[in-house]
Amino acid sequence: MWMSDIDECKQTGACPELSHCFNTAGSFHCDCWGGYHYNGTRCEDINECSVGNFTCPDNSTCHNKEGGYNCSCNSGFLYSNNSLCLDVDECATGKAECPNASNCQNTAGWYFCECWDGYAGNQTVCEDVDECLNNSTCSDHSVCVNTEGSFLCLCDHGFSSNGTSSTRCEDIDECSHPEFGPLCTHGTCINTAGSFYCACHKGFWSSHTSCLDIDECEKNESICQPHSTCVNIPGSYECNCNLGYTGNGTYCKDIDECSKSPLRCHKSSQCINTPGSYVCVCAAGLIALGSLCVDLDECQSNRGGCHPAATCYNSAGGFQCQCGNGWDASTRNGHGMDGCLPLFTF
């Protein structure tokens, strides 16, 4: 008797869910769907991500799902060409958020913010570093001045970096430096650390940076002999005889102007020598008018002091009191109240 095969797969419940039923001669078998495996009672999902049975590109993460898995690019990467996860350059695309005074540095999947030299901080702020708080930032003989992102070393007065280093200050030899020109005129320039001083020649005094003339005349008023005048000159002094004296300044002798020039005075006067000069004395009855001797009209002043009964007569260099009629001159020749005597007495 011929018997036909029974197709068990057509019967309900022959295989568990999530599986395929395959009929065979006299039997059948069940195969779980792809991504599932039989655990003896049912088909359950295979976690490919945990068992390592997956293929994802670099820089991506495996995510399990029912009956399979998928791959998603990690943060900072972008899926490309359906097979690659390429790095996103946040610095180039402007997605990076870096603070002021910093540079954006791209990395695989992310970026970081690097503060500029002279600044310090984190991803959110970069602040200026005050290098001057470190006493060793600048060399000796300089002052540290903090600036944004940097600092300056300013050399003290009398020191210079000389172009060799921004932080090393060396003494300037002012005495030999052409920029300063000739120093210490009337003396010798002596260089010191950060400065110089002048060793001055005789007759000069040092103000430290220059040589100033000593005014010997002001310092010692009696430095010259009598009848001479002290004249200050650079580095010394001279004694010059005063007007009316002759000599070398050390010794001054009076000049007798009257003996040297008899015509120095008016013909009607007498030359009289005085210390350092002379005077012209007009003869009696004459008065000086500038360099001239002119007659003095004594009669103009109180009638020359004649007696009331007398008449005053002026003459060159003198005058006369002449008693009038009825009067006779006394021994005083008409001068004064008793200069004339009456001829008749009643």
From TrEMBL:
The keyword Metal-binding does not apply. One of its GO terms (biological process) is animal organ development. PROSITE patterns: ASX_HYDROXYL (PS00010), EGF_2 (PS01186), EGF_3 (PS50026), EGF_CA (PS01187). Residues 5-44, 45-86, 87-127, 128-170, 171-210, 213-253, 254-294, 295-333 form the EGF-like domain. Signal peptide: none annotated. It is a single-pass type I membrane protein. Keywords: Calcium, Disulfide bond, EGF-like domain, Glycoprotein, Membrane, Repeat, Signal, Transmembrane, Transmembrane helix. Its main location: membrane. InterPro entries: EGF, EGF-like_Ca-bd_dom, EGF-type_Asp/Asn_hydroxyl_site, EGF_Ca-bd_CS, Growth_fac_rcpt_cys_sf, NELL2-like_EGF, NOTCH1_EGF-like. It is found in: Membrane. CDD domains: EGF_CA. SMART domains: EGF (SM00181), EGF_CA (SM00179). Coiled coil: none annotated. One of its GO terms (cellular component) is membrane. This is EGF-like domain-containing protein. One of its GO terms (molecular function) is calcium ion binding.
